Amino acid sequence: xxxxxxxxxxxxxxxxxxxxxxxxxxxxQDQVVRDYIxxxxxxxxxxxxxxxxxxxxxxxxxxxxxxxxxxxxxxxSLYKLEEARVAQYATxxxxxxxxxxxxxxxxxxxxxxxxxxxxxxxxxLRNRLNFEELTTFFQCPEEHPRVDxxxxxxxxxxxxxxxxxxxxxxxxxxxxxxxxxxxxLEDVVF
Length: 190
Known about the structure:
alpha+beta, Arc Repressor Mutant, subunit A, 2 domains, three-stranded antiparallel β-sheet, elongated, disordered N terminus
């Protein structure tokens, strides 16, 4: 199951800006695009995307020279950008068989990838909301992990961590937070 921290991070990523709809043209100035690139290729990936944007088309060897890191790390980041549909490359082979890679920024597909991720997160949040609304939870005063009614019954309503008695937990605030996150996502998913 996804942790609440992961859901909050993904939710922040998915709703970081108000960009939505098929008419949105993603750019590196959009925080949601920057977050997407960092998520896919790390900080170095974002740095490479910025360099490519400024100098495109640019040779892979030039990128390696501009980024002070091992060539293998730079190539790995470039391939992560390509896999994330942020950058693309063309190859050219000279007479000796040496291949050169020319990189360009390509953000056209990013909005569709982000939208797919938003839809997946929306489905996850709806499922989580349904679970929260249909489940009665119990927890000890020390706030160790809560358990559902069935598990609480099996444990005799005693905390498995500290053996203190468990009481019913009001999850209304969790439900409201999930509803807010769902509403935010529904506004940006197309």
